[in-house]
């Protein structure tokens, strides 16, 4: 009996050894697979970390920098006396409400070198209402009332006393102030050289400052967008005036300069336009005075 038991045990030894070997082979690949999975997860984590932008890369433009640039782009206009309205160089294009021409004397003031841009409006208001989008495009689709709120907030942020120009200040500046050479448009008798208007705009606004400036170094005072003025719209009188601010009341506010879809006649320096204070469209913007 002992002999048979011994023979059976000897027969089972190779089988047990094979089973042990097989079990070890299964465990080793399992361990390797776990290591590979851990390494892949680590790599994915590193890749995600590398491709995720940092806070500094995603932050908005510096508001302080935008406003400092706006302040730096205000141009000093020396006061003086000029003839306002449909003067001789305006010719037969002058409308009846540009007459009678009259003498106006203005104190010195400052006015924006450029129309207010969408970047500047966004920095102050936190939104951009414009139809044509672009940081350096002039802001548009803003009412006279919107402009007053923009100016109120801008003055809080800067401690300055920004405002809209009066109609007389706007025309004096467009004509080149006391450096005026008597041009029909703001800076030239050749409108295409100084303005984006219906013949060259491609039915859209353009970044400010791309055309030639006028005698004071002001850009786009003809064309691109109409620019709101502070005044109520009213009839001219023939008497001389000093620092006129327009009528005391009214139903419409003045805007000046023509726009991207205006004909040449509407882009003249003496051309007047007007809308209700709440009106907005894609051709109405602003330029600041100080």
Can you describe this structure?
The protein has 290 residues and is of the alpha/beta class. The protein is built from 6 helices and 9 strands; from the N terminus they run αααββββαααβββββ. Mean pLDDT is 86; it is low at 1-8 and 13-59. It has helices spanning 2-51, 55-58, 63-72, 118-125, 144-158, 167-174, and strands at residues 74-77, 80-84, 102-106, 109-112, 226-232, 241-242, 253-256, 272-275, 284-285. Helix content is 33%, strand content 13%. The radius of gyration is 36 Å and the shape is globular. Strands 8-7-5-9 form a 4-stranded mixed sheet, covered by helices on one side.
Describe the structure concisely.
This protein is α/β, with parallel strands linked by helices and 290 residues long.
Keywords:
290 residues; alpha/beta; 3-stranded mixed β-sheet; 9 strands; globular
């Amino acid at each position: 009996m002992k002999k048979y038991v011994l023979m059976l045990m000897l027969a089972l030894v190779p089988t047990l050894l094979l089973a042990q070997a097989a079990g070890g082979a299964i465990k080793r690949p399992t361990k390797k697979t776990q290591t590979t999975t851990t390494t892949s997860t680590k790599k994915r984590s590193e890749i995600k970390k590398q491709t995720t932008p940092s806070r500094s890369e995603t932050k908005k433009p510096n508001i302080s920098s935008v406003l400092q640039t706006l302040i730096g782009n205000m141009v000093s206009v020396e006061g003086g006396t000029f003839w306002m309205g449909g003067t001789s160089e305006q010719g037969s294009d002058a409308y009846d409400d540009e007459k009678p021409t009259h003498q106006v004397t203005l104190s010195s003031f400052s006015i924006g070198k450029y129309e207010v841009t969408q970047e500047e409006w966004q920095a102050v208001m936190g939104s951009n209402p414009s139809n044509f989008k672009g940081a350096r495009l002039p802001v548009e689709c803003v009412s006279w009332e919107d402009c007053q709120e923009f100016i109120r907030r801008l003055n809080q942020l800067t401690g300055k006393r920004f405002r809209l120009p009066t109609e007389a200040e706007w025309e004096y500046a467009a004509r080149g102030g006391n450096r005026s050479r008597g041009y029909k448009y703001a800076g030239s008798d050749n409108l295409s050289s100084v303005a984006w208007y219906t013949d060259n705009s491609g039915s859209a606004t353009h970044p400010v400052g791309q055309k030639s400036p006028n005698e004071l170094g002001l850009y786009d005072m003809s064309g691109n967008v109409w620019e709101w003025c502070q005044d109520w719209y009213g009839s001219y009188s023939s008497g001389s005036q000093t620092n006129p601010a327009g009528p005391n009341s009214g139903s419409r506010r003045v805007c000046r300069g023509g726009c991207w879809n205006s004909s040449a006649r509407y882009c003249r320096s003496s051309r007047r336009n007007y809308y209700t204070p709440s009106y907005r469209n894609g051709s109405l913007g602003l330029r600041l005075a100080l």
